[in-house]
Each structure stands twice: as C-alpha cells, then as structure tokens.
Design a protein that fits this description.
- The termini are far apart.
- The radius of gyration is 20 Å and the shape is globular.
- About 80% of the residues lie in helices and about 0% in strands.
- By secondary structure, the protein is mostly helical.
- It contains 18 helices and no strands.
- The longest helix has about 35 residues, at about 225-260.
- It has helices spanning about 1-20, 20-25, 30-45, 50-75, 80-85, 90-120, 125-140, 145-170, 175-180, 190-200, 205-215, 225-260, 270-280, 285-315, 325-345, 350-375, 380, 390-410.
- About 50% of the residues are buried.
- Helix 10 packs across helix 16 (about 350-375) and helix 13 runs antiparallel to helix 14 (about 285-315).
C-alpha cells in the first residue's frame, strides 16, 4: 500500500512538472475572439449552441495531441516539417496562409485587450491597442520561455476563477444547458456563429505553436523510453488543459444565455454592452471582473499569437522558434504590426472579432490536411506514424470542418 502511494505521488509530481505547453495553447482558445463568438452564441441562441464547444474541444484534443506527437518524435515543429517534406511552392502557400491566420488571431487578441482597457479606464480602443502591443512585445522580446509559460498559467487561472464567479452569481438553467451540450442543432441564421465558435476553439496557429513549445522540455530523442514517457505526459497535459478550455468557453455561453438571451434570435454585438448589461443583473462586481478577465485574456493570447507567428515564419526558413533569431523576430513583428493596422481600419470592433474567428475556420482545413499528411508519413514519423484508426478519425475531423466551410460559403455568410 505504501509503495502504491509513493508511486502515485511520483506520477502526480511528474505530471505537475510537465504541465505548461497545453495551458499555453489553451489560452489561445479563451481569447477575446472566443468571448465575442460565445457571447454571440449565448445571447442569440441561448444554450442551443453549447454542443459546438463540446464537438470542437473533442476535435481539438485529437488534433493538438497529434501535432504535439510530431514535435516530440521529430524534434521539428509543424512549420519546419512542412518546409522539409513538402515541395516549395505548396509549402509556401500553406505557411503563408497560416501566417495570415496568426495575424487574424493577433488582431482579435489585441482588439479584445484594448476594449477591456476602454471598459476599465475609458482609454480609446486605438490608443489601447498600442498599449497592449507594447506590453506584449516587451513580454515576447525580453522574457525567457519559462517565464512566459508561468505568466500564461497565472492568467488562465485568473480567467477561470473569474468565470467561476460569474456563473455562481448567474441563474443558469442547467437542464437546458445539459441538452445544449449533447444535442447538435443549428438554428436558422446561426451558421456564421457556429463557424466562429469552431474557429475560436480549433485554431490553426495553435497546432503550429503546440508542436513547437512541446519541445521546450529538452529530452534525448534517441532514447525510446524517454520518447514514450513524453508522449504519455503530453497527452495528460493536453487533455487536462483542453478540458479547462472547454469549461471556460462553456461558461461564457452559459453566462451570456442566462443574462443576455432574449429569445428573438438577435445576438449582442458589442462586448462593452455585454459587460454593462451584467451590472444590473449580477451586481457591480460582475462587469469589473468581466473586463479584467477580458484584459488578461487579451494580453496572454496576444503573447501566444505572436509566438505562433514567429514559429510559423521561422519554419519557412527551416529554423525553430528562437526569439533571439532574426527570422523569429520578423515573424513576431509580421504577425503583430499588420494586426494593429487592421484594427485602425475596421469600423466595428465586435464584427472584427467574429469575422477573424470565421477566417480561422476557413484556413483550418489547410492546416489539418497538412498535419495529417506529415503525421501519417513513416518517412517523417517512423514507427510513430498514425495508425489506420487515427487516420480515419483525423480525416473525419478534416471533412467535418471542410463541410461546414462549404455550407458557410453556400449560404453567403
């Protein structure tokens, strides 16, 4: 019995030491773009679209786990592997669209943080964008990876506690919520919101990022036992982190459904309004906590968006992510600066958030099919190449995402 307890404690400590890469990825799908998508889903359709968070998270666990395997087994991120094993013209198309997805993501993150500053301190959004950009670039260019990772874990924890507080003081119809989580339904006119929820959860740049940051735990790739151990702990880290992300995304929809849903199919299209409407319903503390959580989400997810852009751009030149390397620095700036320029040009911040997430869903099939090709290749993965069953699961996910995109284009958005 004593030996069992010691073994369990050792296993738990090993797991705790390994937590980090998954949570760094998790913050990417609890970003301001998710806030906009989830508020639109809950305020416009009540608890009906909760199933999309569930389905998206299941797909995400499988895809992120698969991307992390690529990083662990090969020592290369998805971007580097694409450059090595796919012909130049095609790989440039794939990776440039991935950079564009990172820019769209960064735009949403910076914009969300700026909107939070406006809610808290009445700072105009455009000025707030430059403040958030300055904070993010300082974190990216001066902090070591381990410091950023700890900062992100802190932010995710605070965001989680914020929404736990919001749910505790909201009047949730749990029976309807349980039905919404399990029963797929697409109400008339909801497809753009469904796609934005999908793009907000299963984010292309996160697949590239996870395959890179998983390598931050340095190990000997020639030792099969070390690889097997890393694969085991990676899955636990990914599953644990994605469940946290699912809970926070669900909490956003629950909160919006409980406090903002009017039953007329009209979604709240202003995060400021969503925050202010919570004050008479839930009390003065609710809107302040809402804005603080949005600010934390904006800063932390902007950091990971920049890291993803740096990872993808470096991969084009067969380099891994290294903030001291010129290609990584260029990748970060190519991601963040155009994102700021887009914010200066858009008229409706909320619509900008929604459509940025839709763009991610549109680019997603390109990244998924690329990942399937690489992780199914024995030339790339050796004996760790995808099994037939996993290939079927991955192709099913890719086809579902592609089908939803076709439906979106067919309906004219």
């Amino acid at each position: 019995m004593t030996q069992f307890i010691r073994s369990s404690k050792k296993e738990a400590m090993n797991f705790l030491r390994y937590i980090g890469p998954g949570l760094l990825v998790t913050v990417g799908f609890i970003d301001p773009g998710n806030w906009a998508s989830n508020i639109a889903a809950g305020s416009g359709y009540g608890y009906t679209l909760l199933w999309m968070v569930t389905l998206s998270t299941i797909m995400l666990v499988i895809l992120q786990h698969n991307a992390a395997h690529l990083g662990i087994v090969t020592g290369k991120c998805l971007s580097e592997a694409t450059s090595l094993y796919i012909n130049k013209r095609l790989k440039n198309t794939i990776l440039l669209t991935a950079v564009a997805a990172s820019i769209a993501t960064a735009m949403a993150e910076l914009l969300g943080g700026a909107m939070a500053l406006e809610m808290l301190f009445h700072i105009p959004v455009k000025i707030g964008t430059f403040i958030i950009l300055g904070i993010v670039l300082m974190c990216q260019f001066t902090n070591a990876y381990s410091r950023i990772e700890k900062l992100i874990i802190l932010f995710v924890s605070l965001i989680g506690f914020s929404f736990l507080f919001e749910i505790c003081i909201s009047d949730i119809e749990w029976k309807q919520a349980l039905i919404g989580w399990a029963k797929p339904e697409v109400p008339k006119g909801s497809l753009p919101v469904v796609m934005s929820v999908l793009g907000a959860v299963v984010m292309p740049h996160n697949l590239f990022l996870h395959s890179e940051i998983i390598q931050s735990r340095k190990w000997n790739l020639k030792d099969k036992n070390v690889i097997e151990q890393q694969l085991k702990y990676e899955f636990k880290d990914t599953l644990f982190s994605m469940i946290i992300g699912w809970a926070i995304n669900s909490a956003m929809i629950l909160m919006a459904a409980a406090t903002l849903y009017q039953g007329n199919g009209h979604s709240i299209d202003d995060i400021h309004l969503a925050g202010s409407m919570l004050t008479p319903l839930l009390g003065n503390a609710a809107s302040i906590i809402f804005a603080l959580a949005l600010l934390l989400a904006g800063i932390s997810s902007s950091i990971t968006a920049g890291m993803a852009g740096g990872t993808i751009f470096s991969g084009i030149f067969n380099h891994s992510y290294d903030i001291h390397h010129k290609d990584t620095k260029r990748g970060v700036l190519i991601t963040m600066v155009p994102a700021v320029l887009i914010i200066l040009l858009i008229k409706s911040p909320f619509d900008g958030l929604i459509y940025s997430q839709m763009f991610l869903a549109i680019q997603l099939p390109i990244t998924i099919f690329t990942q399937i090709y690489l992780t199914s290749s024995k030339k790339v993965m050796g004996k760790y190449a995808n099994s037939k069953r996993l290939k079927i699961i991955l192709f099913t996910i890719a086809l579902i995402v592609t089908f939803l995109n076709i439906c979106l284009f067919a309906t004219g958005f």
